[in-house]
Amino acid sequence: xxxxxxxxxxxxxxxxxxxxxxxxxxxxxxxxxxxxxxxxxxxxxxxxxxxxxxxxxxxxxxxxxxxxxxxxxxxxxxxxxxxxxxxxxxxxxxxxxxxxxxxxxxxxxxxxxxxxxxxxxxxxxxxxxxxxxxxxxxxxxxxxxxxxxxxxxxxxxxxxxxxxxxxxxxxxxxxxxxx
Length: 179
Prior knowledge:
Blueprint: E1 12-14, E2 34-36, E3 52-54, E4 64-66, E5 73-77, E6 86-89, E7 94-96, E8 105-107, E9 114-120, E10 124-130, E11 135-137, E12 149-153, E13 159-165, E14 171-175
Parallel strand pairs: 1-2, 3-4, 7-8
Antiparallel strand pairs: 5-6, 6-7, 9-10, 10-11, 12-13, 13-14
């Protein structure tokens, strides 16, 4: 029986460096609240039937609402074999497979990995990008611009040649190097 620390609003509040032994609750009604001030470690499974709010009020009315600072990592997932499975920053950047952050969506992997892949249920793989730089497309590729052009460049980034349409709607095949 615990009488110290029971709040008049009907919940148990433990703050500071308090230590509780085994706490067993047979029934906790939906109107009661369990609040832990400070670091809390749960040694078993925590099942939540309602919403989980971290960092502030649930403004999106979502099942899991996490709010953090713009410059911070809001969510980080790892495993014993992978340091970074996925990370999400407060500014909206997402990292998958590593900590490479160069855009809003960042995918990292070994040099032999497929980094991005898309497939249909009956068609199979329609698109992929590998870490070696290979890009595969099954089907058509559409370039939409005023003058759509494919540029070919070497490792220095200099454009070696191009295929596209010019402003007169003529097909342009151009070699930009002298050989």
